[in-house]
Specification:
447 residues; alpha/beta; Rossmann fold; OB fold (Dihydrolipoamide Acetyltransferase, E2P); 21 strands; globular; disordered C terminus; binds S-adenosyl-L-homocysteine; binds FE3-S4 cluster
Length: 447
Amino acid sequence: MPQRFFIETFGCQMNEHDSEKVAGLLAHRGMVAVNSLEEADLFLINTCSVREKAAQKLYSRLGEVKKHKTSHPQFLIGVLGCLAQQEGEDMVKRVPFVDLVVGTHMFHALPDLLEEVEQRRGSGARVATDFLPAPTPVEIPQVIRQSDFRANITIMEGCNKQCSFCIVPTTRGRERNRPAQAVLQEARRAVDQGYVEILLLGQTVNSYKDPNDRHFRFADLLSQVASIPRLQRVRFTSPHPREFDDHTISVIGEMETICNQVHLPLQSGSTPILKRMRRQYTRERYLEIVDKFRNCGRPIALSTDIIVGFPGESDADFQQTLSLVEEVQFESMFSFKYSPRPHTAAEHWQDEIPEEKKTHRLMLLQKMQKEIQLRLHQEHYLGRHLEVLVEGTARDGVRRFGRTSTNKVVNFPGTDRPGTFTEVFITDVGPNSLVGQKTTDRQQNCA
Ligand code: SAH
Ligand code: F3S
């Protein structure tokens, strides 16, 4: 068995957390995590396939890693995650120097698969991309958390929606919910260990239903997690707008432990495009959900995801997206050019919007969003005292940075330990972050 492993992770928070589980599984078998490829005898790369660019990035990274393998013949390379699931044997044809390809349903078997690879050295790569028939996600209690203060916790995996642009249902499979009891046990243990923030994870996190009690839904789980004594903050990602029922919105409105930031992926502001995207809501319905959050009892910062250049998106459709963005005033946004993906319905529709047009639309959207963020920061943050959870050293290498409950990055001078809370007076704002001075320390310690 290899002894020292190094994991690189591309993609979403679900992937980050899968890598934490994999690290735990390997450490449990006596392997040691190292901080660089050069120190490792096993290199694992956890992949994303949501856009073509992510796939290209993986192959160019593997090209670099191959050089290391040439000079270190015992070195093993394993590819994990969504692209591994999607490509399987095809991946080995393209990059025959990889030793192991493990899909999203087979992480738990990784230590055994590594033993197999060791035994069959020289006889080609081992590809493990079977879909598990398991009705609930495999429990992996050995997780090694990257953060000392934020605990990622899976509540469900997979997605039953069929958005026409999205590969996730193919790579992750159908919805599987974890028993609420297992989630709550993990959450309580994390708090006992000193974690102050919990991030609940799932591909459509708010469609959660306890497999042992279908009436126990996302709102119930969220409220029970948020009630754990000493827990300071709860976040969740990634929700689907349609799955926000009134109960969930009222729980978010009432419970201060739940961060006052909600991700509400829009994708497009045009109803005909939303229909082609199979998003299951119209522009008007989306705006109604926004309104419910606006009236839920406390201010909630809304963030979103938008795709430009979806097949059939006319200038008028795109204007609808801009006008909705102007109307809602999102606090942050992830925006993407449409990228056709295999195994999706839209794959067969002509990707007819020229690249330059997509680029232009993306630029217009991002410019508008930047102005909105700067204005919101000036109006709602400048001159206020805000509670910040300290995360680490700022990019300048000198100051500290942390996050507000609304998920804004705040840079400030100080020596506070990551995982502690402090109050910061905001003295300056930019479109992407805030700057301030500490006012008081709230002595909250963590793990
Ligand atoms: N609920 C999911 C969303 C997955 S993808 C989750 O987080 O697990 C994240 C975002 O990528 C989507 O909201 C969408 O805006 C974008 N995206 C997905 N497929 C895409 C595609 N084919 N082209 C461009 N962007 C895409
Ligand atoms: Fe993808 Fe739509 Fe599910 S964006 S993850 S198919 S909700």
